[in-house]
Design a protein that fits this description.
Number of helices: 12
Structural class: alpha/beta
Largest sheet: 10 strands, mixed
Keywords: Amino-acid biosynthesis, Branched-chain amino acid biosynthesis, Cytoplasm, Leucine biosynthesis, Magnesium, Manganese, Metal-binding, NAD, Oxidoreductase
CATH superfamily of the largest domain: Isopropylmalate Dehydrogenase
Helix content: 40-55%
Distance between the termini: 17 Å
Bound molecules: adenosine-5'-triphosphate, magnesium ion
GO molecular function: 3-isopropylmalate dehydrogenase activity; magnesium ion binding; NAD binding
CATH topology of the largest domain: Isopropylmalate Dehydrogenase
Pathway: Amino-acid biosynthesis; L-leucine biosynthesis; L-leucine from 3-methyl-2-oxobutanoate: step 3/4
Main location: cytoplasm
Family: Belongs to the isocitrate and isopropylmalate dehydrogenases family. LeuB type 1 subfamily.
């Protein structure tokens, strides 16, 4: 019986179509669990450019920071492609990510039994995959100093840096999440070659002392990349640094089939951001055929990691699974024998299942 305020950012392309379907499910959650959700509609990206002339305003940031979570659609599209870099929709997305101060990106990869035929991988390999990559977002080689080119332009360099505090907080967050799942954490590094990875590994081991109930193992990143395609079922939660996480989270998500099914969260800052991994899909915008499930799975993450409403999150996840089990599919995941539905119909079915 809580009261929550949610920032809603529908965005560009298919964003508005699928965010609406997410909110339908949320309204059913409200009824079923007797919560009240208040919505603050905000604009980032192309929709902000059209309204305010810039991809992100300070007012938008302030509004979002006053709420409990940010439910985010998608930004970008051909309409804004030719603008200068700092005025493009994507600059708005980067800006809001920065303003929220998230240091962790969560990327679940889950295979729905019902959709195994849509993957390019063998059934034996992917059946039962349910893993989550926790990527450190604010440190590592993407931000380390010194960086740049030598004066004579004959050399270029970047530096992988992690502080004790940065490793500690991401490790804690990953252990906390593992504790709520199957209690298995794999820390991925390159400790056989990199000092920064040895440092990472030592701190993760230190933090693990507070989590005796979670099983910890370490894996070199090259092996992890291989294991993800060889035997992905061995993983529950993977925690890793910025660059390794960038690569492994994309790899992991492609195990599961459709891009229209996958959610992500940026957390650890003042307000969590919850969004699908896919973009604004301008090629199908306005046609009413987009798959709303990635957005609805983002809603489940918002409930779980943003508002700590675990039962409610599970209820949404179960609703998605049930509708898939009943054989309903949007066109991106449909095969011949399925019951084909459009965006709204899929959203209605899931809301009803909630
Ligand atoms: P970005 O640069 O924002 O990542 P992109 O063009 O690289 O955008 P997407 O917008 O994710 O990538 O689209 C990639 C392809 O996947 C497109 O053909 C799009 O139609 C399809 N797609 C993406 N999301 C969905 C969805 N929810 N339902 C169905 N198809 C989708
Ligand atoms: Mg892309």
């Amino acid at each position: 019986m809580g009261k929550f305020v949610i920032s809603v950012m529908e965005g560009d392309g298919i964003g508005p179509e699928i965010v609406k379907e997410g909110l339908k499910a949320l309204e059913e959650v409200a009824k079923r669990f007797k919560h009240t959700f208040e919505y603050k509609y905000v604009y980032v990206g192309g929709c902000s450019i059209d309204r305010f002339g810039v991809p992100l305003t300070q007012e938008t940031i302030d509004t979002i920071l006053s709420t409990d979570a940010l439910f985010f659609g998608s930004v970008g599209g051909p309409k804004w492609e030719n603008l200068p870099h700092h005025l493009k929709p994507e600059a708005g997305l980067l800006g809001i990510r920065k303003a929220l101060g998230a240091f962790a990106n969560l990327r679940p990869a889950k295979v729905f039994r019902e959709l195994i035929n849509t993957s390019t991988l063998k059934k034996e390999v992917i059946e039962g995959i349910d893993l989550l990559v926790v990527r450190e977002l604010t440190g590592g080689i993407y931000f380390g100093e010194p960086r740049g080119f030598s004066e004579d332009k004959k050399k270029a360099f970047n530096t992988m840096v992690y502080t004790n505090e940065e490793v500690r907080r991401i490790a804690k967050l990953a252990f906390d999440i593992a504790r709520q799942r199957r209690k298995k954490l794999t820390s991925v590094d390159k400790a056989n070659v990199l000092e920064v990875s040895q440092f990472w590994r030592n701190i993760v081991i230190e933090v693990s002392k507070d989590y005796p109930d979670v099983e910890l193992n370490h894996m070199y990143v090259d092996n992890a990349a291989m294991q993800l395609v060889r035997n992905p079922k061995q993983f529950d939660v993977i925690v890793t640094g910025n660059i390794f996480g960038d690569i492994l989270s994309d790899e992991a998500s492609m195990l599961t089939g459709s891009i229209g099914m996958l959610a992500s969260a940026s957390v650890g800052g003042k307000v969590g951001l919850f969004e699908p991994i896919h973009g604004s899909a301008p090629d199908i915008a306005g046609l009413g055929v987009a798959n709303p499930i990635a957005q609805i799975e983002s809603l489940a993450m918002l409930l779980k990691y943003g508002l700590k409403l675990h039962k409610e999150a599970k209820c949404v996840e179960d609703a998605v699974a049930l509708v898939l089990k009943m054989g309903y599919r949007t066109q991106d995941i449909a095969t011949n024998s399925d019951k084909k539905v459009n965006t709204t119909q899929m959203g209605d079915l899931i809301a009803k299942a909630v």
